[in-house]
User: What shape does this take?
Amino acid sequence: MVQVVFSPKWFWGKDIFIDSIALLVLLSIAIFATKYYWIKKSRNYLYLALSFYLIALSFFSKILINFTIYYQVLHTQIIGSMTYTQTILKSSEIFAVSGLFFYRFFTLLGLFMLYSIYEKQSKANIILMVYFILISIFFSKEEYYLFYLTSLILLGIISNRYYQNYRKNKSKASGMLAASFSIITLSQVFFMLVSITKHFYVAGEIMQLIGYTVLLTAFITVLKHGREKNKG
Amino acid sequence: MEGKRTRVDIIGDMLSSIVSKGGQIKPTHLMYKSNMSHGQMKTYIDDLVQKELIKKVKKNDFDYVIITNKGHEFLQKLREMKEFEKAFGL
Assistant: This one.
């Protein structure tokens, strides 16, 4: 049986709200990186934009799955018909399982692309990594934590990269960026522990919310700093 | 770390040089401040005038280059980009 619902019932909807915030933050950064790409035509901007679009797309898939499941389960409760409930759950499960695949695939692909900006990859490496990503998603169907473990590793490496960057230039924005990615990395640990209690899912979502809020603050700091310099 | 200046870097340096001189500068000063050859600067000035980022004016028989509002906005975008690159380590 594939686990698709990780949230405790009282948290339904609140997690969608948190994921929507993450989606908006990721999209804002992706849109700006796209604009910058058109000005400078630098590949790094393009890859950064693409990786953020992919992660945003993964959140969109997650929101869509959760919204459908929560709404349909609630809907069947109101109707209260056994036959109808079964049909609805079956169709929503197929949707959820395929949605979950896209959510995981886009997340890992986006993170790998972000990682590749800093650690240049050969074509063979890219093919190999996409294969490993697919394998990890395949096994995550039964052992869901494998997906979070893979995210944790990729996010950990990226966070460390941002921390090294902060140590080098000591700028406020790069410090916040490193902090935000570290918090998001930590949230993966909570998600891995969901099988113990669903409260870990709530903790993971809250950590994620904090992480994306710090990421947004870092992004605003970048824009503000650019404007301040222009006044001088 | 500091490699060859890109086209966008050169434009950024030119616009910054104009701003640092209060929004207007003589072409020769601009050439020295932006570290460019005469031919290179002429091409860039023509391009920036065409894009309406700067204007060429004459004051007391001297040629001046002044930055436009569009130029200010573009410079702001370039500075944002620089901060963005610094933050993300691009």
